[in-house]
From TrEMBL:
PROSITE patterns: PFKB_KINASES_2 (PS00584). It is an enzyme of class 2 (transferase). The keyword Ribonucleoprotein does not apply. CDD domains: bac_FRK. Belongs to the carbohydrate kinase PfkB family. Its EC number is 2.7.1.4. GO terms for molecular function: ATP binding; fructokinase activity. InterPro entries: Carboh/pur_kinase_PfkB_CS, PfkB_Carbo_kinase, PfkB_dom, Ribokinase-like. It comes from the Bacteria. This is Fructokinase.
Length: 299
C-alpha cells in the first residue's frame, strides 16, 4: 500500500444560486487527499492517514475516498470539525480563508500514529499539513519512523500559511533529508534556497522539478532527463501537481520499483515511464474543472 499522509478538507467554492444569490459549494479537497484519490483511481493500492471528522463534511471526505478505492482504515476519526477553506476570486485569482482551529485534521498527535505493518510499502507527505502543529509534528515523526519504506515528499510551500518560519524550515529540512523522492517547484526551491543537485547530495535518490508546460526535469546521481508535458486544453490547474505525484507513484508500483532500494538502484531510463505516467495523468486533470483525477481506463 502507498499511504498518503496529510490534509483533507472541504473547499467552499463560490457559486451563484439559481435565485441569483451568492453561495458556496462544498467540494472535497486537500493536496494529500487529492493524491490519494488519484492513486486509487489509477488502480494502485492507495491508503490515507490523516484526521477525519465524524461530522457531515467528514462523511463527504470518507465517501470520496471509498468511491475512489482508497483504504482509509488508518485514518483517525474524531468529533472535531472538518477543516474548511472558503475560496474567493479577485480578478480570477483565488484567495483562501481557512477555518482550521481545533479541527480533526490539525489536532493529530503522536498518540495517533498508526502501526504501518508490512503492507505499507511507501509513504507520501506534503501540502499544508506540514505547517500547522500539532499535526505537522506528527507527520514529521511518522516520516522519521519510516524505516526501510520508500518516502516521497512534495513540500508545496505556501508562505502565506507559515506562522513560525524557523520551526517550519527545520521540520521540512528534516523530512527532505529522509526523502527518497522529492517533487518540487521552482518557487519551492527559491524559498528554500536549494537546488535539485543539493537535494541529491542531501540523500534524495530522485528529484522531480515540475516546469508546467515545459515538462518535468528528473534528476538523480546519474544525471538528468526531461520528460515533456502532455498537450492539453487547460481548464484549470487545480490538483495537477497532486495528480502528477500519484501518477509517478502508481508508475513505480506498475514497474515493480515501489521500494527504497529499487528506486535507488534504478536508472533514469527505467524511471522514465513512471515520470511519464505522472505527466499523462496530470494532463487529464488540467483538462477539466477542479481536482478531478483520471481513472485508469481514461489513460
Amino acid at each position: 500500500m502507498i499511504l498518503c499522509c496529510g490534509e483533507s478538507l472541504i473547499d467552499m467554492l463560490p457559486r451563484t444560486a439559481s435565485t441569483g444569490e451568492q453561495a458556496f459549494a462544498p467540494v472535497a479537497g486537500g493536496a494529500v487527499f487529492n493524491t490519494a484519490i488519484a492513486l486509487g483511481r489509477l488502480g494502485a493500492p492507495a491508503g490515507y492517514f490523516g484526521g477525519l471528522s465524524t461530522d457531515l463534511f467528514g462523511a463527504v471526505l470518507s465517501d470520496a475516498l471509498t468511491a475512489s478505492r482508497v483504504d482509509a482504515s488508518l485514518a483517525v476519526r474524531s468529533d472535531r470539525p472538518t477543516t474548511l477553506a472558503f475560496v474567493t476570486l479577485t480578478d480570477g485569482q483565488a484567495q483562501y480563508a481557512f477555518y482550521d482551529e481545533n479541527t480533526a485534521g490539525r489536532m493529530l498527535t503522536d498518540a495517533d500514529l498508526p502501526d504501518l505493518g508490512r503492507e505499507t510499502e511507501a509513504l507520501f507527505f506534503g501540502g499544508i499539513s506540514l505547517v500547522s502543529e500539532p499535526a505537522a509534528d506528527t507527520y514529521a515523526a511518522l516520516c522519521a519512523q519510516a524505516g526501510d519504506r520508500l518516502v516521497m515528499v512534495d513540500p508545496n510551500i505556501r508562505p502565506g500559511f507559515i506562522t513560525d518560519e524557523a520551526r517550519y524550515r527545520a521540520r521540512l529540512e528534516a523530512m527532505l533529508a529522509r526523502a527518497d523522492i522529492v517533487k518540487i517547484s521552482d518557487e519551492d526551491m527559491a524559498w528554500l534556497g536549494i537546488t535539485p543537485a543539493a537535494l541529491i547530495e542531501g540523500g534524495a535518490a530522485l528529484v522531480l522539478e515540475t516546469r508546467g508546460a515545459e515538462g518535468v526535469l528528473a534528476v538523480s546521481a546519474e544525471g538528468e532527463l526531461i520528460v515533456p508535458a502532455r498537450k492539453a486544453e487547460v481548464v484549470d490547474t487545480v490538483g495537477a501537481g497532486d495528480t502528477f505525484n500519484a501518477g509517478l507513484l502508481a508508475g513505480l508500483w506498475r514497474e515493480g520499483l515501489l521500494g527504497r532500494e529499487a528506486v535507488r538502484g534504478a536508472t533514469l531510463e527505467a524511471l522514465r515511464p513512471c515520470v511519464a505516467l505522472g505527466a499523462q495523468a496530470a494532463a487529464v486533470t488540467v483538462g477539466r474543472a477542479g481536482a478531478n483525477p483520471p481513472w485508469e481506463d481514461e489513460l
